[in-house]
Amino acid sequence: MTTLSGDDFESAVVSVIDSLKPGDIISYGEVAAEAGYPGAARAVGRVLKGSTGLPWWRVVTSTGRLVPGHEVEHERLLEQENVIVLNGRVVR
DNA sequence: TATCTGACGATAG
DNA sequence: CCTATCGCCAGAT
């Protein structure tokens, strides 16, 4: 039956992020595209914000910028994954 | 059903 | 390089 729910979108996003490995960085738009919802970068941010247990720190903005409002926390978490962050930007 | 919001993306200035 | 504006999508009220 057509039991469509936003849960499908969240599940897809969670699956993509959970598939990432330590040190692997991806942008919101990339996550949305991989989840099957290209252009839904904003919706992805909503999932990260409301979902716990997800490595949200592996997700950065398209320009490699850290998450606004969480730059300090984000940078610290990335360093734990062997990721170098300079000036609020991820070094790749 | 309509309207607003938001851990975004891209472009313009 | 930084700020501002528009556009896109899904969820919440």
Description:
There is one protein chain. With 92 residues, the protein is mainly alpha-helical. It is built from four helices and four strands; from the N terminus they run H-E-H-H-E-H-E-E. It has helices at residues 6-18, 28-35, 41-50, 71-80, and strands at 26-27, 59-60, 85-86, 89-90. A two-stranded parallel sheet has the order 1-2. Strands 3-4 form a two-stranded antiparallel ribbon. Helix 1 (6-18) crosses helix 2 and helix 2 (28-35) packs across helix 3. The longest helix has 13 residues, at 6-18. The radius of gyration is 13 Å and the shape is globular. The termini are far apart. The model has no long low-confidence stretch (mean pLDDT 92).
Question: What are the salient characteristics of this protein?
Answer:
single chain, about 90 residues, two-stranded parallel ribbon, two-stranded antiparallel ribbon, 4 helices, about 45% helix, DNA-binding
Outline:
The chain has helices spanning 6-18, 28-35, 41-50, 71-80; strands spanning 26-27, 59-60, 85-86, 89-90. The protein is mainly α and 92 residues long.
